[in-house]
Amino acid sequence: MHTQEDSLTGARWLLVNPVDTAQLNSCISRQPGLTSQPSLVVYDNLGAGEGDIIGFVEGAEATAPFEQPTPIDAISLAIFDTLHYEAPTH
């Protein structure tokens, strides 16, 4: 027996491997392997694919795009075509 949540129709679930700032530039030039960060499942209605770099939020902010309470913990917000990151210098 299962129940489908209507508000989640038409999107996909992505298995995402987050990177930290130390790994960010290397993942821009090549697809990184698994990182030490724990993987998570992200709701995606933007159409991200394997190897894409996405921005996502977790927690209560992930439910903000929905009109009704929706059972998700993380949602994709952006697919980055290009990205440049410079670490701050102290």
Task: Tell me the number of helical segments per DSSP (H or I, 4 or more residues long).
Answer: 1
CATH class: Mainly Beta
Q: Which term fits the overall shape?
A: elongated
Describe the largest sheet.
2 strands, antiparallel
Oligomer: single chain
The level of helicity is 10-25%
CATH fold title:
OB fold (Dihydrolipoamide Acetyltransferase, E2P)
What is the CA-CA span between the terminal residues? 57 Å
What does this structure look like?
- It is found in: Bacterial microcompartment.
- It comes from Oceaniferula marina.
- This is Ethanolamine utilization protein EutN.
- InterPro entries: EutN_CcmL, EutN_CcmL_sf.
- Keywords: Bacterial microcompartment.
- With 90 residues, the protein is mostly beta strands.
- It has one domain (17-79): OB fold (Dihydrolipoamide Acetyltransferase, E2P) (Beta Barrel).
- Helix content is 10%, strand content 26%.
- The chain contains one helix and four strands, in the order βαβββ.
- It has one helix at 21-29, and strands at residues 12-16, 40-44, 53-58, 74-80.
- A two-stranded antiparallel sheet has the order 1-2.
- The longest helix is centred in the first third of the chain and has 9 residues, at 21-29.
- The model has no long low-confidence stretch (mean pLDDT 82).
